[in-house]
Design brief:
The structure holds two protein chains of two kinds. In chain A, strand 27 and strand 28 form a beta hairpin. Chain A contains ten helices and 49 strands. Chain A is mainly β. In chain A, strands 5, 6, 8, 11, 12, 15, 17 and 18 form an eight-stranded mixed β-sheet that branches. By secondary structure, chain B is mainly β. Chain B is about 5% helix and about 50% strand. A four-stranded antiparallel β-sheet of chain B has the order 3-28-27-26, with no helix packed on it. A four-stranded antiparallel β-sheet of chain B has the order 4-5-6-7, with no helix packed on it. Chain B is globular. Chains A and B meet through helix 5, helix 6, strand 36, strand 41 and strand 45 of A and strand 12 and strand 19 of B.
Chain lengths: ~650, ~375
């Protein structure tokens, strides 16, 4: 390269020492051009080179003649140092220099060049991890929202005109010449080189794959097993791909933490071992529960990883049904921020206490938790859960068994209701027809309490105090005084006629004559789950509206009510108690014992017609005589506990 | 005309062995109906072998009452089918149908059971004085006690009196007990599950002795019976195991009609050995593996065991030996029938193997099918 001044010409030299002061025209050496070596031309007489320790930009003056004699006449000005020959000027490239002027004068005109020494000082990536040694690590898909990264070169001076001199081996141009853009894919290494003159810097972009996880299975490890209404237990799992309606229902005691094990599929494997964290967050009536894993190592070969966690908070201390509680799952990114990786939906029953003494049947949990939603005390829960029974009586109104939506009923087939496998909660929930007797319904309610750990509700049976009789459940009407002898005065199905109701669970007209009946006692009160009535303060309070009277059979009289086969005893009574007079016992004492107004009222009642026939006066009544205590004038129950 | 077998499925043992065994039985080990062997064959195994079909015969009854229970009974040298039904007045009765020997199918003795509104479950036994003893349920609405009734004394005893609030079902006299009233096996509903109870008649009057015989570790026991053996007893029972069942898409558990429970679900048959004192001495095992049956009956004569079970397509008869706590099967015959079957009853008698079932129970078309092999 050279800096050319003008063509060769003869120069007229005016010597100041010439006394004649005349110009002498002679052949003078002239400066033809300046050549620059070790630098590149920017424009005109501007030259640049990159910093390069120990090297020089050489400016060589070409003269006419281009001889040492001529060179010796060159007058150098500006920067630089003399070279090995007079026509050379050396400018060091050891440091950055800007617009350093070097001029040479040989008989005029003066020629000059401007020298610049620039430096490339740094090359850096904005990938998240600087691994040192000009190596940066980034992650495909996770780098930036724009899915790009930048490599930036820094020069000295760090100005656009210097940047323009940069050369890159790869990358996409940006608005600034000192930056190149790189996509975050593909995974792999990209060696980026920026060159400024003879100086270059490298940056290795190490693009890795951050793992992507997906919740595959959640095992709820500390809850209670829910029995799927005798068809096995829910597995306490949420499984990816299983229909939502088939996902396991969950049961936990209120106010407890929830432990779980989460299996996550590695849907996108990392390219090298990485460490992530996963957390799930759910909201229960305003209380946030969060499950956070520890560090989870995920390697390139891993197909699945797991972690165990316990919720940071307990469930609200309330009975509840959480119909669709949603866990939002997140995992950490390389910068420790959280990224959502999905949601899972669950149904959870929160019980008052741990189920005790019964499987936690699905239907029982659902009825009681739904009824007792938001409650926290036992007595209120029992009373509130029982309210549901009152609303489920009558044809088509019964509880639905959740397993198969079968209606649960009380004596669905009336007289033809089966006699086996109809006495327990298991039976009621297992039978295809979902029907049961009072024993089943009483236990159904008791077991419902037990699913909440309430074990003080007890089934008890009642039977007529008069042996070998049947109890007649309302509604029956006794027409007239009856045509039969006391105390069974009414002809079954003629003078004592079954009316519509009383409705039982899912059945308007269940069977209505029984040898016994099952009730429930809780907290000193009497419940009749078969009919959803009560609660009552005592047995007498239950008996009055529930029992129509007593029947004596066989034989029985069959009939149908609607399509329901029924039977009634051939002899019926409005109800009574037999009392055998004891020695020294008076009828007045007996009347008082049974709450009858007076001995005369007892003696003169139609039921004691036979007694009057043999004992003409009260005074003649003797020990061993049987006195009928009519229910209609007594305050004592005609049924007794078994 | 009653249609015989629709098919017999291949057995777990070589067909030739089965055939050989039945032929051997015809020679004396088992009394095989000659008519059956001679007349009823079906080609199996590409026509290379033949198996005799079990020809089921309908029991001719003189009553239009719906039969709801059956048992085999040997009495006075006569082999009888005892069938229960309910009269128009709701009275439960037992009717006796001799099927072989003197008066076969010619008589129809009737015994009225203690009156009750519900048709009880029952089991019969002929006492040494030829009186008939019956163990039966007396189901109420809240409870279901067991009672004992004897045709001689006409007295009814509540044998579950020691469990006054008890719920018992399926009473069965222990089979092959002679010379005294056998103990009664029954299923007891207890808390949220069921267990097998044993009632033994006391030496003196009073409540029968009660003990819990066995509570399966897994599942809910549905049916139980016991058979006397030389060393003690074999207790057979069927357990409802939800894990082995498959509900349909609607969550419905498969079931078949059942005379007393309306319907019955499937279960696995177990067997366990008991000592003479009714102490379990063996380990419960499943003689028929995981195969599911709706109901079953079993009988044991020396080391020969037969188990008859109802399936969703008919019945299955298994015959073999009990060796320790295992069952070595020698014969298995499946029989498909178009109508649902229930109340299987099987008995090994001097006359052969007797089989009876109820077809179309809980329907006006209910009838008894039986045969002797």
């Amino acid at each position: 390269m050279s800096s050319k001044s003008q063509p060769l010409k003869k120069l007229r030299t005016e010597s100041p020492h010439d006394p004649s002061n005349k110009c002498i025209e002679e052949d003078h050496p002239t400066l033809i051009r300046l050549h620059v070596q070790g630098a590149q031309n920017l424009s005109g007489n501007n030259w640049w080179a990159s910093v390069n320790m120990g090297t020089f930009i050489t400016v060589r003056a070409e003269t006419q003649p281009d001889t040492p004699d001529a060179w010796s006449l060159i007058n150098w000005q500006g920067v630089g140092a003399p070279g090995a020959q007079p026509n050379l000027r050396l400018f060091p490239r050891d440091a950055v220099a800007v617009n350093q002027n070097v001029s040479a004068d040989l008989n005029s005109p003066v020629l000059d060049v401007n020298l610049n020494v620039y430096d490339l000082t740094a090359l850096a990536s904005d990938l998240p991890i600087n691994q040192g040694a000009q190596r940066w690590k980034g992650y495909a898909d996770f780098v930036l929202p724009s899915h790009t990264s930048l490599v930036t070169a820094t020069t000295n001076p760090n100005t656009p005109d210097v940047w323009a001199l940069l050369q890159w081996n790869t990358g996409t141009a940006t608005a600034f010449a000192n930056r190149k853009q790189f996509a975050d894919t593909p995974v792999g290494d990209t060696d980026v080189r920026a060159t400024l003159g003879q100086k270059h810097l490298n940056a290795l972009l190490h693009m890795c794959q951050w793992p992507v996880l997906q919740v595959q299975r959640i095992r709820f490890t500390n809850g209670h097993d829910i029995n799927r209404d005798t068809a096995g237990q829910f597995d306490r799992e949420w499984q990816n791909g299983r229909a939502q309606n088939d996902q396991s229902r969950l049961c936990h005691t209120r106010g407890t933490t929830i432990q779980l094990t989460v299996d996550l599929n590695v849907t996108t494997a990392p390219t090298e071992n990485e460490t992530v964290q996963v957390r799930g967050t759910a909201n229960f009536l305003g209380t946030q529960l969060q499950w956070t894993s520890g560090n989870i190592a995920v390697g390139p070969a891993d197909a699945q990883v797991s972690f165990n966690a316990t919720s940071d908070n307990p469930l609200p201390n309330l009975v509840a049904v959480y119909d669709t509680f949603r866990i939002t799952w997140e995992m950490t990114l390389p910068d420790n921020s959280w990224r959502q990786i999905g949601t899972t939906d669950h149904v959870l029953y929160a019980t008052l206490g741990d189920p005790n003494g019964t499987p936690a049947y699905w239907t029982l949990l659902d009825i009681s938790c739904r009824a007792g939603n938001g409650l926290s005390d036992e007595a209120t829960l029992v009373a509130t859960a029982y309210v549901a029974f009152a609303g489920k009586t009558g044809d088509g109104n019964g509880f639905r068994r959740l397993r198969d939506n079968q209606e649960l009923t009380y004596y669905l087939n009336g007289l033809n209701t089966p006699l086996q496998n109809v006495f327990t909660t298991f039976d009621l929930l297992n039978r295809p027809d979902g029907t049961g007797r009072c024993g089943a319904w009483a236990r159904f309610f008791v077991d419902m309490c037990k699913t909440h750990g309430i074990t003080t509700a007890q089934v008890f049976g009642v039977v007529p105090k008069v042996a070998n009789t049947k109890l007649l459940v309302h509604n029956c009407t006794f027409n007239g005084a009856g045509s039969l002898a006391a105390p069974f005065t009414h002809v079954g199905n003629v003078e004592c006629v079954k009316q519509n109701g009383a409705a039982g669970q899912g059945k308007t007209n269940p069977q209505f004559i029984f040898g016994d009946h099952a009730l429930v006692e809780y907290g000193g009160r009497v419940y009749d789950p078969s009919y959803g009535t009560g609660s009552y303060p005592d047995l007498a309070a239950w008996e009055a509206p529930a029992i129509a009277g007593l029947g004596l059979g066989p034989p029985y009289v069959g009939f149908t009510q609607g399509a329901t086969p029924q039977a009634i005893t051939s002899q019926c009574s409005e109800g009574f108690i037999e009392h055998t007079m004891q020695p020294a016992e008076t009828l007045a004492q007996v009347a008082a014992l049974y709450g009858v107004a007076s001995d005369n009222a007892l003696y003169n009642h139609a039921y004691n017609h036979a007694l009057r026939a043999t004992r003409a006066t009260i005074a003649l009544i003797q020990a061993g005589d049987v006195v009928y205590i009519p229910r209609t004038i007594s305050n004592v129950t005609i049924l007794r506990r078994l | 005309m009653f249609r015989c077998a629709t098919s017999i499925r291949p057995t777990a043992v070589p067909l030739r062995a089965v055939l050989g065994r039945i032929v051997a039985a015809a020679l004396g080990l088992l009394l095989v109906s000659v008519e059956c062997v001679a007349q009823e064959f079906i080609m199996l195994n590409h026509g290379q072998e033949k198996l005799p079909l079990i020809r089921m015969k309908p029991l001719s009854t003189n009553s239009d009452e719906e039969v709801n229970g059956i048992e085999w009974l040997e009495r006075n040298g006569s082999l009888e089918i005892v069938a229960s039904s309910r009269t128009k007045d709701f009275e439960p009765v037992l009717r006796f149908y001799p099927v072989e020997g003197k008066g076969a199918l010619g008589s129809n003795n009737v015994f009225a059971l203690p009156s009750q509104l519900d048709m009880p479950q029952w089991s019969v036994f002929i006492e040494t004085d030829a009186s008939l003893s019956v163990a039966l349920t007396r189901p109420g609405s809240a409870i279901s006690p067991l009672v004992f009734w004897n045709s001689g004394s006409k007295e009814e005893t509540v044998i579950s009196g020691r469990q006054p609030g008890g719920i018992f079902s399926g009473p069965r006299f222990i089979k092959r007990v002679q010379n005294s009233t056998p103990p009664v096996i029954a299923v007891e509903s207890y808390e949220s599950s069921k267990r097998i109870a044993l009632f033994s008649r006391p030496a003196t009057n009073g409540p029968w002795d009660y003990r819990v015989l066995h509570t399966p570790e897994v599942g809910v026991v549905q049916q139980a019976l016991a058979v006397r053996s030389d060393s003690g007893y074999y207790l057979f029972y069927k357990v409802y195991v939800a894990a082995g069942l498959k509900t349909d898409a609607g969550g419905v558990i498969p079931s078949l009609p059942h005379a007393h429970s309306g319907s019955v679900t499937q279960g696995i048959v177990y067997c366990v050995r008991l000592s003479r004192d009714f102490v379990i001495v063996g380990k419960p095992f499943r003689p028929l593996g995981d195969e599911l049956f709706f109901e079953f009956d079993a009988d044991v004569e020396k080391d020969q065991v037969v188990i008859l079970g109802t399936s969703d397509s008919g019945f299955v008869l298994n015959e073999g030996r009990l060796v320790g706590d295992s069952f070595v099967r020698s014969t298995r015959i499946e029989r498909d029938l178009p109508s649902p079957l229930s109340a299987p009853a099987v008995s090994i008698t001097q006359r052969g193997l007797c089989i009876a079932l109820l077809e179309n129970t809980r329907s006006p078309k209910a009838r008894v099918l039986y045969t002797q092999l």
